[in-house]
């Protein structure tokens, strides 16, 4: 019995509807599954039952911001690889994202190929479910 191929899941969290829809369309055009949410709270409410291969997070979001959420996942031991994209990423924020283990942190608008390359790198590292420790995975 053959299993269906695994299509990496990219979860996008951005409060800008146009950016969110564009990123979801780009990810799907590359053959990835993509789910998009306008806030961390909306993502939590979705209770995704599947493996997340990469989180694509805005930093400034309504409610909990993307970097605080990611740091929470890291502390819990279940952080999927993450790529941050923001219109407000200072040097300090970029450094904080890197310390948390982010693959990359881009200013909007990000160059498409740079974003695609960072997501491919995240996927190559393997994904986990939020709240679930990665077995034997070294921090990025």
TrEMBL record:
A UniProt-annotated Pfam family: Response_reg
Modified residues (4-aspartylphosphate): 58
Keywords: Phosphoprotein
Xref: SUPFAM superfamilies: CheY-like
Signal peptide: none
InterPro entries listed in its UniProt record: Bact_response_regulator, CheY-like_superfamily, Sig_transdc_resp-reg_receiver
GO biological processes: phosphorelay signal transduction system
Domain Response regulatory per the UniProt entry, residue ranges: 9-123
Protein name as catalogued: Response regulator
């Amino acid at each position: 019995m053959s299993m269906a191929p695994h299509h990496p899941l990219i979860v996008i969290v951005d409060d800008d509807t146009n950016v969110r829809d564009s990123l979801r369309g780009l990810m799907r055009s590359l053959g990835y599954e993509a789910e998009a949410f306008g806030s961390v709270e909306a993502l939590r409410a979705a209770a995704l039952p599947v493996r997340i291969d990469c989180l694509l997070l805005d930093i400034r979001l309504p409610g909990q911001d993307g970097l605080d959420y990611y740091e929470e996942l890291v502390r819990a031991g279940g952080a999927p690889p993450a790529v941050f994209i923001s219109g407000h990423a200072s040097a300090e924020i970029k450094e904080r994202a890197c310390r948390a283990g982010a693959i990359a942190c881009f200013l909007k608008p990000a160059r498409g190929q740079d974003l695609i390359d960072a997501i491919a790198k995240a996927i190559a590292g393997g994904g986990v479910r939020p709240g679930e420790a990665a077995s034997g995975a070294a921090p990025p």
